[in-house]
Amino acid sequence: MQTTGSKRSPCPRFRLREVVSIYFTMLTLFLVILVAALQGTAPQENYFPYKVPLDPRGLVELAWNVSYPEQVVHFQVFIKELKFGLLFGMSDRGDFENADLAVLWSDGHSSYFGDAWSDQKGHLHMDSQQDYQLLSVRRTPEGLYLVFKRAFSTCDPKDYLIEDGTVHLIYGILEKPVPSLQAINISAIYKGLQRVQLLKPNITTPELPRDMKTMEIRAPDVVIPSQETTYWCYMVQLPDDFPRHHIVMYEPVVTAGNDALVHHMEVFQCAAQFDSFPHYNGPCDSKMKPERLNYCRHVLAAWAMGAQAFYYPEEAGLAFGGPGSSKYLRLEIHYHNPLVFQGRHDSSGIRLYYTASLRRYDAGIMELGLVYTPVMAIPPGETEFFLTGYCTDKCTQVALPPAGIHIFASQLHTHLTGRKVVTVLSREGSEREIVNADNHYSPHFQVDLSPLSAGDVLITSCAYNTEDRDQATVGGFGIMEEMCVNYVHYYPQTQLELCKSSIDPGYLHRFFNLVNRFNDEEICMCPQTSVTQQFASVPWNAFSRDVLKSLYGFAPISMHCNKSSAVRFPVGRKLLKSTVRLTAKPPPHLAGQSCPPC
């Protein structure tokens, strides 16, 4: 979805003599810098409002700003302990092959900066068009600040097109001097990947109420487990006499030094049908976690790495507290600890800003996409495999008010193999509007859409890449399992909290039967065998892959049209795709897109 005001300007045209002159002038001057001799202070922090850690060890950090009038991103890379150089850049999937790079390197005497690119073998080449423009280099007691800028679109075929959605940022640290750019061996350097949304939505910050108060929902000095992935749950109780309020804003509170470990956080409110919930502070997948905590799933706040503060529109706020509202909240933190640090303490969480001056509308959060179930799976070795979840007209007809609802924000979510996500609004059998689309997948996006009416259809499709896996990837909550979810924020609030689908499980049973007969192999389908185990037994040849794709495209769906209490609205569970009036073919917004013409 193109952000307002972000239309790309036409590329300038130069005569051949001017191009040759500019190119050789660049090569002659080439921005030779003596890094060690430069002293000064870091640029003002408020000039770079967005910030993410690039390195889990805290050695490299990126801050940036976006100028929509100039169609330019300003980057500030902070290097804590600069040795002999740094590579920073972008690529389609976070690989160092076919990447667009800004490179700072030293031969042990002088330091150099330039715009480079890598070929499909990972070899570096100087770009004939220098589009990373160095602005300043500052050394402080904390480290080195490197400031440069880059246009969204450069008309250079070797450059990455910066567009809406997730950008895969890559970095590498040079620990030894190199005689030239071409001498850098990418396979031998320390390197990494970070995913961010560079082009932030250009939304005006609403005025906040004067009587606003804050509340921090934070982990109580958790020792982050020494494993790659941990979901940590912590229960919080509001005061007994806490009255009804509106949340008007929330923001992350991340413990200093843990920026690269805290991947995402959510605050859930528990179901009001229970008078009490047990206290718990531990891993969310622990057998010691009380089963009742599974009834804490009403989302109050959700944050992912790279996202900033979230503001509600001036006419709406998210209600919590007061009669009919549970006083129990569950904080869930996803720790991503790829270097398996030990003994790291964390008290991260989310800060809620709330007011007693209730706004005109209660806001709500609705979950779209696929049900968390293993019946939705991706075969191994797939370059692009699509799964689609439906919020059908039968559900919205029953659950939404006649005047409809107004969607003002959208948060997309998949796990490790997710590559593209789109949610499309369909009315009377034809596509009307894109709710959110990301051809590189992003965690957070605020939008402004026309009303969603009763009888409309919302279709959420995800594309996955499983080339590096040798077993089927099933749907579920685990980080190695997959999701296809869009959290949409809207007003006025309704009772509809979950509008998702999966294929009818009975048709998946037919798939396993058919694969058995075709391959003359035995896939155990006895009652005690799980769907995950059955998928693990499938021989993934062309036949089984094509049959599964067809199954997901045309089999009847099992519809989940749920209230926050998990009670379903009175709509049929099993629906034919024809009743949705759209096929499950990948939406055009997920197809490969070319760069705009220059």
TrEMBL record:
Q: Where in the cell is it found?
A: Cytoplasmic vesicle, Secretory vesicle, Chromaffin granule lumen; Cytoplasmic vesicle, Secretory vesicle, Chromaffin granule membrane
Q: In which pathway does it act?
A: Catecholamine biosynthesis; (R)-noradrenaline biosynthesis; (R)-noradrenaline from dopamine: step 1/1
Transmembrane stretches, by residue range? Answer: 20-38
Catalytic activity, reaction form: dopamine + 2 L-ascorbate + O2 = (R)-noradrenaline + 2 monodehydro-L-ascorbate radical + H2O
Which top EC class is given? oxidoreductase
User: What are the protein's UniProt keywords?
Assistant: Catecholamine biosynthesis, Copper, Cytoplasmic vesicle, Disulfide bond, Glycoprotein, Membrane, Metal-binding, Monooxygenase, Oxidoreductase, Signal-anchor, Transmembrane, Transmembrane helix, Vitamin C
Q: Which GO terms describe its cellular component?
A: chromaffin granule lumen; chromaffin granule membrane; extracellular space
Q: Which InterPro entries match?
A: Cu2_ascorb_mOase-like_C, Cu2_ascorb_mOase_CS-1, Cu2_ascorb_mOase_CS-2, Cu2_ascorb_mOase_N, Cu2_ascorb_mOase_N_sf, Cu2_monoox_C, DBH-like, DOH_DOMON
Q: Which Pfam families match?
A: Cu2_monoox_C, Cu2_monooxygen, DOMON
Recorded hits in Gene3D superfamilies, A to Z, give:
2.60.120.230, Copper type II, ascorbate-dependent monooxygenase, N-terminal domain
Which cofactors? Answer: Cu(2+)
Into which family does the record put it?
Answer: Belongs to the copper type II ascorbate-dependent monooxygenase family.
- How would you summarize the oligomeric state and partners of this protein? Homotetramer; composed of two disulfide-linked dimers.
Name used for this protein in its record: Dopamine beta-hydroxylase
The organism named in the record is Crocodylus porosus
Q: Which gene encodes it?
A: DBH
